[in-house]
Amino acid sequence: MAGSDVILLDLWISVFGARVRIALAEKGVKYEYREEKLDDKSPLLLEMNPVHKKIPVLIHHGKPVCESNIIVQYINEAWHANSPPLMPSDPYLRAQARFWADFVDKKIYEGAKKIWTTKGEEQEAAKKEFMDVLKVLEGQLGEKPYLVGERFGFADIAMIPFSVWFYTLNKIGNMNIEKECPKLAAWVKRCMERESVSKSLPDAHKFYELFLEMQKKKGQ
For the domain that residue 137 is a member of, what is the CATH number? Predict the structure, then answer.
């Protein structure tokens, strides 16, 4: 496989890919970006991630690393000499960062999916459940600038891409996430002030347009 020492197999709309793009930007790592298609996966993707056959995949010196949160941790370790560190130096805070990244993986994706795949009473219940999850994150933020400690890091990288979905959820669920969760909204703005974040996330309005197109194709 000729070319760059660092290759990212990704999809522009992917919140999971955005995590990796943010981490690479934070560490100042140059890489070759290769856009994948959901309905026509490349032979390279199938070769590099034969288990899940999903993006993102980071290929470093020809070796693949899969699953976004694992990739972010790998980037932090592989380029440990590059500032800033993405993980706290304190073991307890590192454990906390992993806990909240895991919380995001288990609660945010599925919670949002429930809202846009249901209607009526079921959707109302899904909306309440999702807001409760966001309020747990608000509680974790408290008066801190970031989810774990005083610095932008692993837990924030895990969560911030999902903020792109808020506009769509507000529209289809008749919600106002920013009003309901002001601390989380302030945290989103704070994160978006970082170039690594603002340049790595897809546009929220484009995501909404794509979502509507997908719904039309499904006949919903």
Answer: 1.20.1050.10
pLDDT at position 204: 94
> Alpha-carbon distance 24 to 30, whole Å?
8
Q: Is the peptide bond before 84 cis (omega within 30 degrees of 0)?
A: yes
- Looking at residue 38, its pLDDT comes to 82
Mean pLDDT of 64-72: 98
Question: What pLDDT sits at residue 220?
Answer: 54
Annotate 12-62 with DSSP letters as a single string: TT-HHHHHHHHHHHHHT---EEEE--TTS--HHHHHH-TTT--S-EEEETT
Rounded Cα distance between 117 and 140, Å, is 28
**In this structure, is residue 73 part of a structural domain?**
yes
Q: Which of 27, 13, 5, 11 is nearest to 157 (CA)?
A: 27
Q: What is the mean pLDDT of the chain?
A: 95
Residue 10 lies in domain:
6-78
